[in-house]
Amino acid sequence: MNFLSLNLRGALAIFTNELARFFRTVFGSILSPVLTTSLYFIVFGAAIGSQMDPSQFGGVSYGAFIVPGLLMLTLLSESTSNASFGIYMPRFTGAIYELLSAPVGVAETLIGFVGAAACKSLIIAAIILLTALLFVDYSIAHPVYAVGYIVLVAAAFSLFGFILGVWADGFEKLSIIPMLVLTPLTFLGGTFYSIRMLDEPWQTVAQFNPVFYLINGLRWTFTGQADVPIALAFGMTLGFVVLCIAVIAVIFKTGWRLRG
Q1: What does the alpha-carbon distance between residue 212 and residue 106 come to, in Å, rounded to a whole number?
Q2: Number of domains in the chain
């Protein structure tokens, strides 16, 4: 792809429009995840965490152990919902036809919609990490890798949310996947525990959960420890990004759910 041929003005217009929508509702967009995360830290980090033996979590406190899991829970839900709603609304109002007739291609569309959704999620993630400092004394073992991995996950699930927004033909479908699939998988993927604490066959079953690898990848960047090889976690995340991009390319090539 020749990046010099990209319509950067068109991509920037989509990006700024989507980001402006976020800032118009910034209070509600930020308050909900911050309050939810704070409650998790109060209940699990303080009340339950005080009863936990740090040796079960590689020598770190239970509160510090669950920070990556709670951050991943927020990243997945926010990235998916932001991107899905962002592309669904033009379809719902009919403005998608103006976009399809404009001189913008797949790359510009993804930079605009997916980039804005990922940016919103990263803003909330930063606020979540600052909020966590009020409740937990944690450190980040590999800060550069942590930032890179957080950006990668935000981009991956913003791409997934874009696909979800194209697939959905009603508002209720926008919440089906995040509520009935992503959230349960996140809770079952080791958000609040290490799978080493599970008996068989549940340890083996947990390894079939893709979110388990995402949480462990992020946990490694924070604590330097994980239940799976870090290369596997990074590889699966990159593979998911490639898969989503391939699906979106097919969507635009065929016009599925976009035209007609």
Answers
A1: 31
A2: 1
Digit-coded pLDDT (tens) for 153-211? 999 999 999 999 999 988 888 888 888 899 899 988 988 888 888 888 888 888 899 99
Q: Structural domain of residue 188, as residue ranges?
A: 8-254
Tens of pLDDT, residue by residue over 135-162, are 888 899 999 999 999 999 999 999 999 9
Handedness of CA 155, 237, 145, 190 (dihedral sign): positive
C-alpha dihedral sign at 158, 161, 163, 165: negative
Residue 93 counted as domain residue: yes
- φ and ψ at 24, to 5 degrees? -70, -25
Please indicate, yes or no, if residue 260 is contained in any of the structural domains. Answer: no
What's the predicted TM-score (pTM) here? 0.90
Ranges of H-type helices in the chain: 8-24, 26-40, 62-93, 96-101, 106-132, 143-167, 171-177, 183-187, 202-206, 210-223, 230-254
Burial letters 136-154, b for 16+ CB under 10 A, else e:
bebebeeeebbeebbebbb
Has residue 19 been placed in a domain? yes
Q: Give domain status of residue 3, yes or no.
A: no
